[in-house]
Amino acid sequence: MKKQTFVLWALTGMLAVPASAQVDYKTRAIVAEPENVPVAKRSSVWSAESAEYGYPVGLRNLGMISQDDNACCNFLSFNKVINRDAYMWAPIGETVSYIDNSSVQAVDYHWFIPGADATELETQDADAVYNTSGIYPFPTMTVKDGAGQTYTYTAPGKLKVGGKGEICTSNMLQLGTDAKDPATTAVIGQRPFGQEGTGYLGGTNSLNLVGYGNLFMIAHPDASITSVRAYLPEIPKHEEGAKLLMQIWYPLTGESSVQLMGLPLEAVTLSMDDIQETTDTKLKKAAVAEFKLSEPLKISDKPFFLVTIEGFGTDPSKENFRLYIDVKPVEMDEAMAGNLLAHNSYCRLKGEDDYLRPINYYGGQLGESFMICPVIDTHTEEGVGIHGVEALKPAQAQYEDGVLSLSSEGAEQAVVYNVGGEKVVNAALDNGQADVHVHLAKGIYLVRFMKGGKVSGAAKLLCNE
Question: Where is the signal peptide (predicted)?
Fold first, then answer.
């Protein structure tokens, strides 16, 4: 598969944080202990020649997504009540791609894909569409070499489709305690600053860091945020009356800028007295600050959103609020590190009006993420308090040489949104199809196909022109 780096809307240099913003902060990671640390096992015995495929590309480090990755799945958090034993979360009606990584010189391929519309395929790579919500095993892939030897592989973990999920920007497949262990995908911890009395990265500090935020993308076509859960190692000590402010923002981008706090969408306050210990996670010890929205916030027409938390104090001797962080770095080269949208988690300095500083500027490692986790309901039968919708129809959107080709069975209309949430195309369809002559700037777009005023299909569109 072609690995072409895709940068959202703009050139890397345009989205870079000035080098002058970097400060030599030192932190140390204090690692939390999972309930257990099981070892992921292959379904076949490992040998020099083996069958294997890659997981779907997850929606994090957005500036590192390739045009060919077909990224549509979110990573699910370690909340075992909401997410149960699922690892990734797929939208109903979207194409989920599994790419062959086998070392076998195969002459024959067979896929069994539980829950998909087409449960069996004979192709080298597999594109699966799931139209029924539920939790399913990942596909079983069987390959045969020229000598007739067969090799079978099923990826560890499970895939959730539709329903309700708690998402994060960390890979929670294999929680561990050693960030250097290649079998470990996430290590949860906290980061005190090295200088005594200065507090925490992700919490109370005396270094003028007044807010922390995570950038998310959602591909589910009919989704609403119902709450945000921020995880901590324990209930923090705090002064009387201390309150936190959680805000959800819609980033705005232009030809030469990006504003993460572009459009305010929601704000919820929470007394620190309301932070509670929780047994919902896969950690032995955790507390949660849960910000419940009074009404579900529709986010499906705004695929990008920033969630921020502020209001913590500046005196670590009186308060020790601090967020859990996934301290397992995402591999990122220097060029990618300079791209603002390649990062997941950000800080805001006192006196500044936006979150334009990734956490590695303050002692975190490249690719680390705060455990700030939105809870999202996709309006299916698994949703709470929201009526279900019919299964979505397969949909396609392509853009080439100034022509936008749209197709979805039974759809009457297609609406195209840019990352700013603006409608850039509104087209009537004939028999579910249309070719529209339009100029689209480089970027990522979300296409909603409509029938009878309701969403009937959805597609993503990555434009590199």
Answer: 1-21
Structure tokens at 86: 């699922």
What is the spatial distance between Cα 39 and Cα 42, in angstroms, rounded to a whole number?
10
Distance (Å, rounded) from C-alpha 375 to C-alpha 76? Answer: 10
Residues 88/97, Cβ–Cβ less than 8 Å:
no
Angle made by CA atoms 316, 320, 321, in degrees to the nearest 5: 125
> Which residues in 7-46 are b (16+ Cβ under 10 Å) and which e?
bbbbebeebebeeeeeeebebebeebebeeeeeeeeebee
- Distance between CA atoms of residues 126 and 121, nearest Å: 7
CA separation for the pair 54, 157 (Å, rounded): 12
Q: Residue 288 in contact with residue 232, Cβ under 8 Å?
A: yes
Average of per-residue pLDDT across 216-244: 94
- Pairing mode of beta strands 164-168, 372-377: antiparallel
- Rounded average pLDDT over 19-41: 73
Is 124 in a helix, a strand, or coil? coil
Output phi, psi for 359, to 5 deg: -70, -15
Q: What is the pTM of this model?
A: 0.81
| Tokens describing residue 203 | 């919490």
What pLDDT shows up at residue 339? 85
In this structure, the chain runs to a length of: 465
CA angle 160-54-304, nearest 5°?
55
Give the residue, 393 or 125, on which the prediction is more confident.
125
Q: Can you tell me the distance from the alpha carbon of 158 to that of 173, in angstroms, rounded to the nearest whole number?
A: 9
Query: Which residue in the block uniquely carries the two structure tokens 């800028």?
Result: 257
In this structure, of 7-16, 177-186, 197-206, 267-276, the range with the lowest mean pLDDT score is 7-16
Evaluate whether 281 touches 79 at the Cβ level (below 8 Å). yes
What whole-number distance in Å separates Cα of residue 213 and Cα of residue 340?
13
The two beta strands, 304-310 and 287-298, are unpaired
CB 370 within 8 A of CB 60: no
Domain annotation for the chain: domains and CATH numbers: 1-388 (no CATH), 395-463 (2.60.40.10)
274 alpha carbon, distance to own chain's centre: 27
Q: Looking up tokens 């149960």, which residue turns up?
A: 84
Q: Which of 221, 244, 210 minimizes the C-alpha distance to 355?
A: 210
Cα separation values, 120 from 2, 110, 142, Å: 25, 7, 11
The tokens of 95 are what? 């194409």
User: Quick one: CA dihedral 304, 233, 316, 229, positive or negative?
Assistant: positive
